[in-house]
Structures are given as C-alpha cells and as structure tokens.
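Sample pair:
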Amino acid sequence: MISQAQTQAYQAGVNYLQQISALLPVGGKPAPVENPQMVDIMTNLRDRVSVCTWIGQSIGVLNLQLQSYLRACDECFNEIDRRSIQIFAVPFAASIRLDGFCNLATTPISILVDVGRVAPTDWLALIAHEYAHAHLGYAGHDLEYAKILNHLCLGLGLPVLSSIQSEANLLYWPPYQPTIDPLAFWRGESTSC
C-alpha cells in the first residue's frame, strides 16, 4: 500500500520535472516533461514512480548542494564580472549524451546537470565545465573557453589543462568519473545526498 506521504512526494517530483521542462530547449521552444529528447522519466514505466518519489523527497537538499558549488564558481570572479546563473539537477534521458547542459536562452542562465551520471565527488568538475559556458555566454570550446575553464579550475582546486591541443581536449574537462547506472542515484539507491 502506498502511503499519503509517498503519493505527495511522487506528485512533488512530477511537479518539479514539469517546472524544469520550461528550461529545456526543443527547437527553440521549452520541452514538455514527456519529451524523450531531454527528459523521458514519465515514459519510463519501470522507474517513474521511484524516481519521481525520490525527487519529491530530496530535490530541495540536492539543489541546495548544487547551489553551493555554483557559489564557489562565482567566487572565482569579481562580483562585477559574474553572470546571473541558476542551477538545477534533472535526470536526462538515456539517449541524451550530455551530463550537463547550459541553457543560455533563459534568464537567468540555467545550468542543468544530471548528477546521477557523475560520481558525487566529481559534481564540482561537471558544474565548472558548464559554468564556463554560462560565464562566456556561448557553447563553444575555444581558446577563450579554455582560459575561463582553467581560471575556474585553479580557483576550485581542480586539474588544469597543461595544453590545449584541440577542442576535443575540452569536451570533458575537468575530468570526472561517470557512473554505471545513472538512474540508480535518482531511484534513491545512492548514499549521497
């Protein structure tokens, strides 16, 4: 039997995903939660209830933790040089080959991260990567991006790039450890958060 608290947590998780869907681009327009292009948890019959329930119970604490990482990134820059940025955790669809996404079209700029895809000890590395895009205001991985990312890495105590040989070097920098089953975190099977 499902308790009223579990039902409320499930509904809170569904509501959260609906709110986050406004930050997900699809052809220049916000995507509905059911859109399998970025978030497809509502069509995942096996995991939908456990994921939405966990989100409803835990997303507030998780997003506070991510906001503390965002503030650490902000502290690497003078206040006058900081951009208006917000951050949220969201389980991306398995078909999406992104661990994080920076939506430059929102105000404030939105960083969305699938923390289930990255070891918790490496969340800051993922956030720093997306923060560099937000700070610059574009998605490319060019020399200017490398400079900003190295600046962040120095300030945050993350590994810096010794040389920039190609854009490919920057796609997954700073390095982080991917997880085997990203939805395990979202189902509440992880000890973190």
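Residues 48-74 form the longest helix (27 residues).
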